[in-house]
Amino acid sequence: MKIAEIREIATNELAERIEAEVANYNQMVLNHSISPLDNPAQIKKLRRTIARMKAELRQRELNK
């Protein structure tokens, strides 16, 4: 997900989306430890997306 798309999301929805993505990330890491994923680069991509979302949420908190 690109930063422009993240900026369009409402603040409360962004917080919910972060929680969902973190849960998805944790599940993906657990599944990868049991049996390798077809594309382990998905983990890296998801981790970066979560970081972008958290950065945008923090920026909104600071601008209030």
Order of helices and strands: HHH
Strand content: under 5%
Number of strands: 0
Question: Treating each run of at least 4 consecutive H or I residues as one helix, how many helices?
Answer: 3
Organism: Phocaeicola massiliensis B84634 = Timone 84634 = DSM 17679 = JCM 13223
Keywords: Ribonucleoprotein, Ribosomal protein
GO molecular function, one term: structural constituent of ribosome
Family: Belongs to the universal ribosomal protein uL29 family.
Describe the protein in words.
This is Large ribosomal subunit protein uL29. The structure is a single chain. Helices cover 83% and strands 0% of the residues. With 64 residues, the chain is mainly α. The chain has a domain at 1-34. The model has no long low-confidence stretch (mean pLDDT 96).
How are the secondary structure elements laid out?
Elements: H1 3-8, H2 11-34, H3 41-63
Helix pairs in contact: 2-3
Task: Name a few traits of the molecule.
elongated; 3 helices; ribonucleoprotein; 64 residues; 83% helix; Ribosomal_uL29; structural constituent of ribosome; ribosomal protein; 0% strand; Large ribosomal subunit protein uL29; mainly alpha
